[in-house]
Amino acid sequence: xxxxxxxxxxxxxxxxxxxxxxxxxxxxxxxxxxxxxxxxxxxxxxxxxxxxxxxxxxxxxxxxxxxxxxxxxxxxxxxxxxxxxxxxxxxxxxxxxxxxxxxxxxxxxxxxxxxxxxxxxxxxxxxxxxxxxxxxxxxxxxxxxxxxxxxxxxxxxxxxxxxxxxxxxxxxxxxxxxxxxxxxxxxxxxxxxxxxxxxxxxxxxxxxxxxxxxxxxxxxxxxxxxxxxxxxxxxxxxxxxxxxxxxxxxxx
Length: 252
Description:
Layout: E1 3-7, H1 13-25, E2 29-33, E3 50-56, H2 64-70, E4 79-86, H3 94-104, E5 108-116, H4 132-151, E6 176-177, H5 186-190, H6 214-218, E7 224-225, H7 228-242, E8 249-251
Parallel strand pairs: 1-2, 1-3, 3-4, 4-5
Antiparallel strand pairs: 5-8, 6-7
Helix pairs in contact: 1-4
């Protein structure tokens, strides 16, 4: 069995989750990273492949650019396991939107996994996750997915989420370069939406920025930061929702 990982992972949390599941399923894993571009649209997918399609939940929705890139992939009747990764708050309608997007591209829904990873903005929440306990749970999920495949069970699980989806909150938190910035352009080259000016990385198109924190995570000089006042406000807003550790979930 060939497993194809298709993931949108600005700060690496979603990739860690899909990597863990894929590697527990088989050694024959093919990766298609759609974080920065739409290269996955050229991936050849056969009906007997299993695809893990992973996205982070941004305010309870699929990031619009991720949905756009996934919609360009041809599923060809292959089974898809939807993977939603969130920062210990909630994922709301992310699964519903991802399910609808994936079905329109020709995939068959086989299962879904909700997993927790370190919050991309307020990094004190779910810090260090996925941790050992999470990895153990994801390995268990992979075993259950494998069992279902081997049994020939083609039933479609009930996956949470509402339609119409909740209103998208958009971005709003735009990281800025500090005094350590050398103008190397790594942030601009790796921005999923092209919001950062390649010639002058201090210039950011606020309408394009989706607050994914990719620029913060890839900066080799740790030069891009979120405004401390805004970060403090985000931490306070999330405190009640993120205080209790959330468990990973399997829908199969």
